Amino acid sequence: MGLLAAALAVLVTGVLAWRGAGSDDADRAERRDQALIEGRRLVETMQTMDPSDLAASLERWHEATAGVLRDQLENVSDDDRQVLLDQQKRSEARVVDAALTKLGGDTAVMLAAVEVTTFGIDDADEEPVVKRNRFAADLVLRDGAWKLENLQQVAVDVS
Fold first, then answer.
1. How far apart are CA 118 and CA 138, in angstroms?
2. Is there a domain that residue 136 lies in?
3. Would 158 be classed as within a structural domain?
4. How many domains does the chain fold into?
5. Cα–Cα distance measured from residue 81 to residue 79, given in angstroms and rounded to the nearest whole number
6. What is the tens place of the pLDDT at every residue in 15-25?
7. CA-CA-CA-CA torsion for 27, 137, 49, 88, nearest 10 degrees?
8. Per-residue pLDDT tens for 51-75?
9. How far apart are CA 113 and CA 88, in angstroms?
């Protein structure tokens, strides 16, 4: 009887350990998926601009960011605002593909391929222009939400 009880205890311990390990994997997978989904949305936000509602565009940028990047956006000068207005171009971004290259407890690094389409504001007949860029994005988890802490364009070597 003692041998049966010991075997049962080992079996129960093994099952509980296996289920616990699976839970850690599931939690990591959920965090990875959420970082990737939110990261894609954040990169699109930062590459989208409507000068006809500049304040709203800058507010969306502000809400998408944290850390130094957010601090930089809080200090957009009047001259920089005027440059955005003078361009008379509205942009819309779409992440074509993205992947996480690193995932920590509350940080992640994402690479994203992005199509940015610009439209002329004054000339409705002007053809939209599509540009394709790649970005590296540093993400940080703040109060349960992923934010961009850094966003850099990645050079593409076509040689």
1. 25
2. yes
3. no
4. 1
5. 5
6. 555 555 556 78
7. -170
8. 889 999 999 999 999 999 999 888 8
9. 25
CA of residue 16 relative to chain centroid, distance: 35
Instruction: Examine residue 159 and state whether it is found in any structural domain, yes or no.
Output: no
* 71-129 pLDDT per residue, tens: 988 888 888 888 888 888 899 999 999 999 999 989 999 999 999 999 988 776 789 99
Q: What is the CATH number for 129?
A: 3.10.450.230
Q: In what order do the strands lie in the sheet with 107-120?
A: 89-103, 107-120, 129-142, 145-153
Enter the pTM of the model: 0.81
CA gap 26, 20 in Å, rounded: 10
Confidence (pLDDT) at 4: 58
- Which two structure tokens, joined as six digits, stand for 23? 């839970």
* 3-state SS assignment for residue 122: coil
Domain carrying residue 57: 2-153
